[in-house]
Design brief:
Blueprint: H1 2-21, E1 23-25, H2 30-42, E2 46-50, E3 54-56, E4 60-71, E5 79-81, E6 84-94, E7 97-98, E8 104-106, E9 110-115, E10 118-120, E11 123-125, E12 157-158, E13 162-164, E14 167-171, E15 174-176, E16 179-181, E17 210-211, E18 215-217, E19 221-224, E20 227-229, E21 232-234, E22 262-263, E23 267-269, E24 274-277, E25 280-282, E26 285-287, E27 311-312, E28 316-318, E29 321-325, E30 328-330, E31 333-335, E32 357-358, E33 362-364, E34 367-371, E35 374-376, E36 379-381, E37 403-404, E38 408-410, E39 418-422, E40 425-426, E41 435-436, E42 440-441, E43 446-447, E44 468-472, E45 480-483, E46 530-533, E47 538-541, E48 546-549, E49 551-553, E50 559-564, E51 567-568, E52 576-579, E53 588-595, E54 600-602, E55 606-611, E56 619-622, E57 627-630, E58 635-638, E59 640-642, E60 648-656, E61 659-662, E62 670-673, E63 680-688, E64 691-694, E65 698-703
Parallel strand pairs: 1-2, 2-4, 3-5, 4-6, 5-8, 6-9, 6-10, 7-11, 8-13, 9-14, 10-15, 11-16, 12-17, 13-18, 14-19, 15-20, 16-21, 17-22, 18-23, 19-24, 20-25, 21-26, 22-27, 23-28, 24-29, 25-30, 26-31, 27-32, 28-33, 29-34, 30-35, 31-36, 32-37, 33-38, 34-39, 35-40, 38-41, 39-42, 40-43, 47-55, ...
Antiparallel strand pairs: 44-45, 46-49, 48-52, 50-51, 50-53, 53-54, 53-55, 56-59, 58-62, 60-61, 60-63, 63-64, 63-65
Length: about 725
């Protein structure tokens, strides 16, 4: 995400220039756009606002010389490629709005090549369902009311930045905070009141699907050296069912509409010719729409609430055929929609189940080949269950949505596809198992848990901590995840079985302990400065103490220079910033540049938020961190929190994916676990008189022998 922040900083300068020389194009021809572009470039840059999409029917190229922004003004898309080839270089395309392709739609007869472009804040939004007449169903009489009409269905939204049915080439581009959203269903009409029998309510309209928060791809695609960060796909929620009309016998309340699913927060692909090289997918989200209430049956019992919508593949959802090499997937999250409440009746209806969440980093229903890729901290969170409907006999709550594959999920059947994994790291996920489904083991893979069934006596290893850092600017066109010097991924692969370069463009192999290539997207150069743990956002209360830290590695000496709100912070030249008796003027943005004689790297921006509230619930300012210890040793976990005193701590360990148990005596900010023999997950719950908070689960990994130089080599 940090290159995104750098891009935003650059865009501020561009917007400033644009405020002096904005141009509006009302004629949607390529010629009119060319005239506006030439004038804007002559004026030193600025923003071109198009009031309707520029139509392309021939081969044409435009160059924004890195200081031209093209905007849809949040009212319309920017380009419509009906034929020919459109080439765009050095532009920022922002605030496009459409149903299919928020910024650009490419038809089957057209093609698009984008180079050194930024796609920022574009949206593909399906229309919400049309409202219906309150009671227009049937022929009502004074004694029998008319039924309510069914709510209108929402329309799907595909391709927040680009929807391509033709050939698409993407080179050195960034896709940030684009979104695709399915329209919500409208509410069903209420039944008509009547003297004897009130009309029944009409069902709610269905919510629509969303796909491709950044790109929805149906044609051939080549994507190189590009970033997909902070994009979202969100399914539409179902409309509520109409209420029954009043009468001596009241009409029944209708059920709501079906929730829409979401797929491919970064990229949705349904084509069989897709190549992705040296790309990063980070902090993308797929989220299912919310389910609706169950309504009431003709027998006056509550109906089951509708389930939440499914969420698939926050980084990539692949339903075609795709090959990815030297790619990084970090903190991509799928979240199922919330189930609806059970209907009200003599017997309450069962609450709807939460929506499924599958494949935080990547969801595959087709064929995927992954070579030298790194997956870390993906998350799959099933939707919250709906609660039971009320009645003389209460219903039951629904079930929480199922979740699988925080980093990778494969649902393809052998006859229809597969997921091939080679030379890749699948690190710990933020929730649930790291992987799910059958995975073809191509050798020299590392999985942090045992969710992947690797070949027996092969070169891949499960339940092994890869010892990697967080996503950071480690050089090259995209952010990557660095290896620790003692990572077991270092110096493992014959160079003939690995790409010649890593994701950053660094040559493989780099000699560390032997002349072998590394597993994953990053090739370790032991001399280069690199960030292993990023500074984290922190909340603090006035008067408390705060520490913001970075963990870095590389040839010594390492030099640190912190920046506060973009300005060099004099005297802040250590790995940590310590602020005692914090005040509101300390709130702001902190980042650090780490350097040595070989290179320099810049951290993410950490935000310090300072609260003046005195009666405050607990706020965790430093979360527990994963640990790796030798079997039989002691592991120590710690948490730092602020909030109104006294604070009470309770550490828990995870028994199953849905169950945790209190640790006897684990009631301090520090937890020591003696004689550790097996990998375990721990979290802490902190309470006071004003509320409670809890940390995420962290893993204590166990190794059987000391880790030597380069990590334990594979046999």
């Amino acid at each position: 995400m940090k290159k995104y922040l750098a891009c935003v900083a650059a865009l501020v300068l561009m917007w400033a220039a644009g405020s002096r020389a904005d141009t509006t194009v009302t004629n949607n021809t390529a010629d009119a756009f060319a005239v506006a572009l030439a004038q804007t470039v002559t004026n030193g840059g600025g923003t071109i606002v198009v009031t309707s999409p520029i139509i392309i029917n021939t081969t044409v190229g435009f160059d924004g010389v890195s200081n031209v922004v093209v905007s849809g003004g949040s009212t319309n898309s920017i380009f419509l490629v009906q034929g020919g080839n459109l080439g765009l270089t050095n532009f920022t395309l922002e605030n496009g709005l459409g149903t299919n392709g928020g910024a650009i739609f490419v038809s089957p007869d057209g093609s698009l090549t984008v180079t050194n472009c930024i796609f920022l804040g574009n949206t593909a939004r399906g229309a919400d369902g049309e409202s219906t007449d309150t009671n227009a169903f049937g022929n009502g009489t004074p004694n029998t009311g008319k039924g309510g009409s069914r709510g209108g269905a929402g329309e799907p939204g595909f391709g927040g930045a680009i929807l391509s049915e033709g050939a698409l080439v993407i080179l050195n581009c960034g896709f940030f905070t684009n979104s695709a959203a399915g329209g919500s269903g409208s509410d069903g009409g209420d039944g008509q009141d009547a003297g004897i029998h009130g009309g029944n309510g009409g069902p709610g309209g269905n919510g629509a699907a969303a796909g491709g928060g950044a790109i929805y791809n149906l044609g051939p695609l080549v994507c190189v050296n590009s970033s997909f960060e902070g994009n979202t796909a969100e399914g539409g929620s179902g409309g509520a069912g109409g209420a029954g009309g009043a009468g001596f016998i009241a009409g029944t309340a209708a059920h709501g509409g079906v929730a829409g699913g979401a797929a491919g927060g970064g990229l949705y692909n349904a084509n069989t010719n897709v190549v992705i090289l040296n790309c990063t997918f980070a902090n993308n989200i797929s989220e299912g729409g919310n389910g609706t209430d169950g309504g009431t049956s003709s027998g006056r019992n509550g109906l089951v609430g509708y389930p939440g919508g499914s969420a698939l593949g926050a980084g990539i959802d692949n339903d075609g055929s795709l090959g990815a090499t030297n790619c990084t997937f970090f903190e991509n999250n799928v979240v199922g929609g919330t189930g609806g409440t059970g209907g009200t009746g003599a017997r309450g209806g069962t609450g709807g189940n939460g929506g499924r969440a599958i494949g935080g980093g990547l969801y595959n229903a087709g064929s995927v080949s992954l070579v030298n890729c790194t997956f870390s901290k993906g998350s799959a969170v099933g939707g919250t269950n709906g609660v039971a409907g009320s009645g003389v006999a209460a219903g039951r709550d629904g079930s929480r949505g199922t979740s699988s594959g925080g980093n990778i999920a494969n649902v393809a059947k052998k006859k229809n596809g597969s997921l091939f994994l080679m030379n890749s790291i699948v690190a710990a996920s933020a929730s649930g198992s790291s992987s799910s489904g059958a995975i073809v083991d191509g050798g020299f893979n590392i999985s942090a848990d045992k969710s992947i069934a690797f070949k027996k006596k092969g070169t891949s290893r499960a339940k092994l901590n890869p010892l990697i850092g967080d996503l950071a600017d480690n050089g090259g066109p995209t952010e990557t995840i660095a290896l620790a010097t003692n990572s077991p991924a270092v110096d493992q692969i014959d160079p003939s079985s690995a790409p010649d370069l890593d994701q950053r463009g660094v040559a493989r192999p780099q000699f560390v302990f032997t002349n072998l290539s590394d597993i994953g997207a990053y090739e370790l150069d032991k001399n280069s400065a690199r960030i292993l743990a990023q500074p984290q956002d922190t909340n603090a209360i006035i008067g408390s103490n705060v520490t913001i830290s970075v963990t870095a590695a590389g040839a010594e000496p390492l030099f640190y220079q912190w920046f506060f709100n973009g300005v060099i912070a004099a005297g802040l030249t250590n790995s940590s910033v310590v602020i005692t008796n914090v005040q509101t003027n300390n709130a702001g943005n902190f980042r650090v540049v780490v350097s040595n004689s070989f290179n320099s790297v810049t951290s993410r921006t950490a935000v310090l938020t300072v609260s003046s509230i005195t009666n405050s619930a607990p706020i965790i300012t430093q979360e527990p961190q994963p640990q790796t210890v030798l079997a039989g040793d002691t592991a120590t976990l710690s948490v730092i929190a602020t909030g109104s005193a006294p604070l009470f701590y309770q550490w828990v360990f995870q028994v199953s994916s849905t169950t945790a148990t209190n640790i006897s005596g684990g009631t301090n900010s520090l937890l020591s676990i003696t004689n550790v023999q097996a990998q375990m997950n721990f979290a802490v719950i902190i309470t006071n008189s004003f509320g409670a908070t809890n940390s995420p689960f962290v893993t204590v990994f166990v190794t059987n022998s000391p880790t030597g130089p380069g990590g334990p080599p594979f046999p």
